[in-house]
């Protein structure tokens, strides 16, 4: 178009119309690109806002996790302390039970010795009783014999 000689009004009208059409198309393309850019900026602004909101949410999540970790660590410490305390009590009870078992064994040994002595005394008493009974029977026989002799002497 530039530098082309214009021969008639009709040609000039054609050039003007073509120029207007190109300008209109260029304007539409520019407005479309501007709309696209504005939409892109709005999307980026939305994403940026989401990132800021996510940042706050992540900070809150981090704070919750740190609190949970601290509380978990404290609970672990308390559980460990309780476990140590119970372990100490178990050791103490085990020591007490072992001491009582030793004492029971000693008492059982004393009881066995006492039972042995009692059994021996019962055997000795049985022998003495048997010997006494035999002696009594022998004496009774001797008394009867003596009484027979006394009676024979008296007659």
Spell out the key features of this protein:
155 residues; mainly alpha; rod-shaped
Would you give an account of this structure?
With 155 residues, the protein is an all-alpha fold. Helix content is 94%, strand content 0%. The chain has one domain. The termini are far apart.
In short:
By secondary structure, this protein is mostly helical. It has one helix at residues 9-154.
The general outline is rod-shaped
| Number of discrete helical segments | 1
Instruction: Provide the gyration radius in Å.
Output: 63 Å
Mean pLDDT: 90
Largest sheet: none
User: Considering DSSP H and I runs of 4 or more, what fraction of the residues is helical?
Assistant: over 70%
Topology, element by element:
Blueprint: H1 9-154
């Amino acid at each position: 178009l530039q530098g082309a000689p214009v021969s008639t009004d009709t040609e000039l009208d054609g050039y003007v119309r073509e120029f207007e059409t190109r300008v209109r198309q260029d304007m539409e393309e520019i407005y479309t690109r501007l709309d696209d850019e504005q939409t892109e900026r709005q999307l980026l602004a939305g994403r940026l806002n989401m990132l800021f909101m996510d940042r706050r949410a992540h900070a809150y999540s981090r704070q919750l996790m740190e609190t949970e970790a601290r509380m978990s660590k404290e609970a672990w410490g308390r559980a460990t302390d309780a476990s140590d305390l119970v372990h100490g009590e178990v050791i103490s009870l085990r020591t007490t039970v072992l001491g009582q078992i030793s004492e029971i064994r000693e008492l059982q040994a004393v009881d066995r010795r006492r039972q042995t002595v009692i059994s021996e005394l019962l055997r000795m008493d049985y022998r003495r009783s048997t010997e006494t009974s035999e002696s009594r029977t022998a004496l009774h026989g001797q008394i009867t014999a003596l009484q027979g002799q006394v009676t024979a002497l008296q007659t």
